[in-house]
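Lab notebook, design round three. We kept the backbone fixed and only want residue identities now. Task for the bench partner: fill in a sequence for the structure below.
Input structure tokens:
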């Protein structure tokens, strides 16, 4: 048998000493488990555009997994009063939302007639049912008991969501830090772990206002507040881009999961995650 005219050493030199023989070593694809990831797309129609729809949402879920990883860690750092690591984690979440904002521009290349061609394949499935998105909202304080229901048929997922619902949100832990810094907070607000969305509290706004009026005295809290604002700013842009893309593709039809589609998404634009941090800006 004739030998290849190029030896392994010659080939390695040609490619700047890159390793080329992986018969006994882990490869890039092995490390990332690409075989499973790249075989996880299963279009249910023969339409060319369904693959775009699937990959768009699968990649979003991967980014959400990282968001949850960062948000849980940031909450723990805030609880401990160790804010510098939390700043980095929250900044990372904000940049992930920015990434997801730009991702909508890819889906927006799909026209209404292209979407209609495979939409029946979705059945009743909808992003509204995303377990990870719901947990992100719960961690950020936008909680709702009725929204547990879509996950009731999955006991393990339901238990995880119920746990997050019952725990203090990221913002709750930050309000606890305000009190530890000597800023007066209504005791009922400190003791309350709500199972609904975060509601405005006058004592919390007053405390944050002191932080903004004396940033050098409360520098870490001041930075934390601005990280929250950055995060919600990016979250709002993601929501806006979402509703615009949906309207562009399906108009005002009902969503596949039964919601009012664009009408529902527009209502969500008014939700505030950190209400006092926004309202105080009118009084500074």
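Proposed sequence:
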């Amino acid at each position: 048998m004739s030998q290849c005219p190029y030896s392994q050493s010659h080939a390695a030199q040609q490619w700047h000493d890159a390793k080329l023989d992986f018969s006994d070593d882990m490869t890039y694809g092995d490390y990332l488990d690409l075989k499973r990831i790249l075989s996880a797309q299963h279009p249910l129609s023969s339409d060319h555009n369904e693959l775009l729809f699937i990959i768009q949402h699968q990649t979003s879920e991967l980014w959400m997994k990282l968001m949850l990883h960062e948000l849980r860690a940031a909450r723990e750092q805030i609880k401990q009063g160790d804010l510098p690591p939390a700043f980095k984690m929250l900044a990372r979440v904000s940049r992930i939302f920015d990434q997801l904002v730009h991702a909508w521009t890819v889906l927006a290349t799909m026209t209404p007639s292209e979407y209609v061609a495979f939409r029946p394949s979705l059945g009743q499935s909808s992003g509204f049912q995303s377990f990870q998105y719901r947990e992100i909202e719960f961690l950020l304080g936008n909680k709702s008991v009725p929204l547990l229901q879509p996950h009731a048929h999955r006991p393990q997922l339901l238990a995880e969501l119920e746990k997050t619902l019952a725990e203090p949100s990221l913002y709750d832990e930050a309000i606890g830090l305000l009190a530890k810094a000597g800023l007066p907070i209504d005791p009922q607000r400190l003791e309350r772990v709500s199972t609904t969305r975060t509601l405005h509290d006058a004592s919390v706004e007053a405390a944050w206002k002191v932080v903004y009026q004396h940033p050098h005295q409360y520098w870490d809290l001041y930075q934390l507040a601005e990280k929250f604002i950055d995060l919600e700013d990016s979250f709002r842009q993601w929501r806006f881009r979402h509703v615009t893309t949906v309207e562009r593709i399906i108009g005002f039809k009902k969503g596949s999961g039964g919601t009012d589609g664009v009408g529902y998404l527009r209502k969500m634009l008014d939700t505030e995650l950190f209400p006092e941090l926004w309202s105080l800006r009118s009084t500074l």
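Keep this in mind before ordering anything: The mean pLDDT is 92.
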